[in-house]
Amino acid sequence: MSVVRRVLKVIATVIVLLVAVIMTWESLPETLTMVPDASTPPAGQYPYQSIGTLHDLNVAFANRNGRLYGIQDQYVFISEDGGRTFVRRGKLPPARDDWTTIIKDRIARLKLTRWIRRNRGPENLVVLDSGTILVFWDRIYRSADDGASFEVVYDRPQHGILAPFGNNEGVAAGPGTVYFGEYSALPRPHAIRLLEGSNDGRDWRVVHTFPSGDIFHVHSIAYDRFRNRYWVCTGDNDSEDRILYTEDGFKTLQLLGGGSQDWRCVSLMITEKALVWGSDNNQTAASINRWNFATQTLEKVLEVGKPTYSSTVLSSGLLALSTVYEPTSPYTQQFHPEPTTDLWVSIDGTCWNRILSLPYRQETDRDGHMTRASLSFPAGFPTDDLYFTPQNTTLFDFETRILKLSPDKLPPCPELQAADAAKAGSAQSVGQ
Hints:
The chain is mainly β. It has helices spanning 2-27, 99-108, 111-117, 156-159, 330-335, and strands at 31-33, 35-36, 48-55, 58-62, 68-72, 75-79, 85-91, 124-127, 133-136, 140-143, 151-154, 171-174, 177-181, 192-198, 203-210, 217-224, 229-235, 242-246, 254-258, 269-270, 274-278, 286-292, 297-305, 308-313, 319-323, 340-346, 352-359, 374-376, 379-380, 386-391, 399-405.
């Protein structure tokens, strides 16, 4: 009996020590630090310098002063030094305030739990000019104290409103207002609504409704600082594919173009002279397209094959987009492209180079659907360095990468770019 007691005492002591260690760890401030890249690419082979990696963090937004906002699980992190360190601020409150939910939430938010689960959390965060932070997830959360605490300002499900598209693309913040559109995957037909947030993100209302059967969903809304207007991208069938804009707070919507898969856009790169986007065409072969404001014409620049969900414009004016590997799409089933998510960059929106590819990691989500390999960029204002977060890849999954691009090292474009759907994306490949 004494042996049993001694064993139980040892076990109890170990448990107490483990609990003490975990509680001590939990009480310490949490800072995520970039891991510098120790390897150096061969000179002249890569048009970028790899700065480093941030583990288990999605860098979701950059404000006009270069401040970066990241998300891990339900916590918001902020960087003041260009992404070299991110300090944890507050977290989103649990869905209910009963004791069972509170206990589950506290366990799920532990550092140890988050380290094991590696949960990305919400994919849409915007920061208003006032500094107010808005996070879009099951509900809309607002923080007026620099992310230290959050309150629910709009309960979408209670109002029958669907969530916006993710990938840091679904929400647009402009002067004094913020907008998002519903992203529905429910069977057609259905109405789709656009919502406006005002009063520093406190008040929300529907400002436009697409009638049932008009479109499938809204991919994104983007604010255009050059023309002081908002762009709206919708999909997915040819008749539903449109790029629209408003200059009067959505009292009216004007059509720029639509009616084909070339206009099926998720993410816009907005410049002074043009709109540039990689199409979301998953039927035949997606292309990079450019709307020239001077000539008022649509230019098909390059067929890249795989669709695009995310893109960005850097402070240097350099453009970047990522293509997505969709394992079950009609395009993939017919043409069998490389199972990679690819990073493409351009100086002017007309000459493009593929500079990096990450292999797909085959998995299924909670609903049993095959996942997709993709890269996402932070929303908001242009940054000096390029930040991107891979998802469902064998390398750097849920790890934000930081690259310093060297436009002068990009090779010139050939006269003929890829036009064969089966070979699309093979032109201008650098540093796989």
